[in-house]
Structure formats: structure tokens, C-alpha cells
Design brief:
Elements lengths: L3 E3 L3 H11 L5 H19 L5 E8 L2 E8 L4 E7 L6 H7 L4 E2 L1 E6 L6 E7 L8 E5 L2 E2 L3 H12 L4 E9 L1 H10 L4 E7 L2 E3 L2 E3 L5 H6 L3
Parallel strand pairs: 1-11, 4-5, 4-6, 4-8, 8-10, 9-10, 10-11
Antiparallel strand pairs: 2-3, 6-7, 12-13
Helix pairs in contact: 1-2, 2-3
The structure holds 1-O-pyrophosphono-5-O-phosphono-alpha-D-ribofuranose and uracil (URA).
Function: Catalyzes the conversion of uracil and 5-phospho-alpha-D-ribose 1-diphosphate (PRPP) to UMP and diphosphate.
Protein name: Uracil phosphoribosyltransferase
InterPro entries: PRTase-like (IPR029057), PRTase_dom (IPR000836), Upp_B (IPR034332), UPRT (IPR005765), UPRTase/APRTase (IPR050054)
Length: about 210
């Protein structure tokens, strides 16, 4: 059974308050989303396997550790997930990036897939699916369905703000994955997370 992790590091919580503020403009919003994603990646990769290595230091041999070479793919859900990619890549520069395009029908809130391009060895990689918002959970569930259909086995979902409804739906649909969020908010209202931060895609890209 996957776990639900809240990233309660003070820097993450402080930066989250900046992007929640309705007076924060596009530039700063984009920058801070990247900073939070970078900090979250630090925690999300905490269980990465290490192997023993001997390193010659100027003073002798250190019995040390290095990453065991597990390959990672970052998969943003378009559009808003794109805002989280650079911050994670900064920490994991050799990760590959796949893309899944999803949009929610504004009336029914049903997600629709319109694009999917993944690294060809996706089944060998640890996959970090990223999207700032987990609202009803429909987009995340469909994106993870699409990834599993194409062979992905080892998946984590990373978001900034989650709603209880979305966490429950995602846990029920994909009980094997871990969910990482910076916040669990109160509720959904007309498909939007309250208090949330508004429409993440519009705030990142300055559309409205
Ligand atoms: C937003 C957000 C998620 C989705 C979450 O995307 O970025 O992908 O809604 O909602 P859900 O959990 O109810 O599915 P949106 O459909 O607005 O598209 P965009 O990223 O292109 O703005
Ligand atoms: N998508 C967003 O961008 N914001 C929400 O509050 C819910 C879904």
C-alpha cells in the first residue's frame, strides 16, 4: 500500500504561502514553484538505493556510498506539471522527461488525454509524475493509468496542493503508489481546491 507524505519542511511551507497569495505575479509564481519542486525532490528521492564504493581520498581509502544508478523519469502532466520539471531536474540532471497531456472538461471535470510521449525504457525507470494540483484526482488517475498501460511499474505522484477527495480517489485507484504533497487543503468547490492557489496553469503561464 502506498503512503501519503506531507512535506512539512519550513522552507517548503514558507514558499507555498508565497504562491498561494493572490497578489503573487507570474514571474515569482513560476520561480517559487520551481524552488518548491527542487526541495520536494530532495525528500521524494530519500529512498533511492545506494551501493558501497571505495574512494581514494588524499589521506587513504574511504568506504563510501554512491547512488546505485537507478534511472529516473520525470513525467509532468501538461500544462501545469511543466512548472515543476526544472526544479527536479536541477537535483536529478540525468533524469529523462516524458510528457502526458490532460485537460479537464470545465463542465464535467472529466479529464481527457491529448498527448503522451515517454522515454522508451519507461518500464526500467522510477517515474515521478508531477502536477501542482491534485483536485478530484481524475487527471492523476488517468495519467497513471496511461503510464502503467505503457509499462511503468515504479511510480510516485508529486504535487504541491491536494484535496482530500483527490487523495482518496488516487489511493483507491492506484493503491501501489506513494503520494507526496506540500499541503492537504480543506475541500473542493466547483472542482477548485479551497483555499488552494487558484488555477495553477493560468498562474504559471499568465493565461486567463
Ligand atoms: C489542472 C491541474 C491538474 C488538474 C487537477 O489542470 O494542473 O492537472 O487540473 O484536477 P483534477 O485532480 O480534478 O483532475 P487543467 O485541466 O486545468 O489543465 P492545465 O494544466 O492545462 O491548466
Ligand atoms: N486545478 C487547478 O489548477 N486548481 C485547482 O484548484 C483545481 C484544479
Amino acid at each position: 500500500m502506498g503512503k501519503f507524505h506531507i512535506m512539512d519542511h519550513p522552507l517548503i511551507q514558507h514558499k507555498l504561502s508565497i504562491i498561494r497569495n493572490k497578489n503573487t505575479g507570474t514571474n515569482e509564481f513560476r520561480e517559487v514553484v520551481n524552488e518548491i519542486s527542487n526541495l520536494m525532490a530532495f525528500e521524494v528521492t530519500r529512498d533511492m538505493p545506494l551501493k558501497d564504493v571505495d574512494i581514494e581520498t588524499p589521506m587513504g581509502t574511504a568506504h563510501a556510498k554512491e547512488l546505485a544508478g537507478k534511472k529516473v523519469a520525470i513525467v509532468p502532466i501538461l500544462r501545469a506539471g511543466i512548472g515543476m520539471v526544472d526544479g527536479i531536474l536541477h537535483l536529478l540532471p540525468s533524469a529523462r522527461v516524458g510528457h502526458i497531456g490532460m485537460f479537464r472538461d470545465e463542465d464535467t471535470l472529466e479529464p481527457h488525454e491529448y498527448f503522451c510521449k515517454l522515454p522508451s525504457d519507461i518500464s526500467d525507470r522510477e517515474v515521478l509524475v508531477v502536477d501542482p494540483m491534485l483536485a478530484t484526482g481524475g487527471s492523476a488517475i488517468m495519467a497513471i493509468d496511461a503510464l502503467k498501460k505503457r509499462g511503468a511499474k515504479n511510480i510516485k505522484f508529486v504535487c504541491l496542493v491536494s484535496a482530500p477527495e483527490g487523495v482518496k480517489a488516487l489511493e483507491e485507484a492506484h493503491p501501489d503508489i506513494d503520494i507526496y504533497a506540500a499541503a492537504l487543503d480543506d475541500k473542493l468547490e466547483n472542482g477548485y481546491i479551497v483555499p488552494g492557489l487558484g488555477d495553477a496553469g493560468d498562474r504559471l503561464f499568465g493565461t486567463k
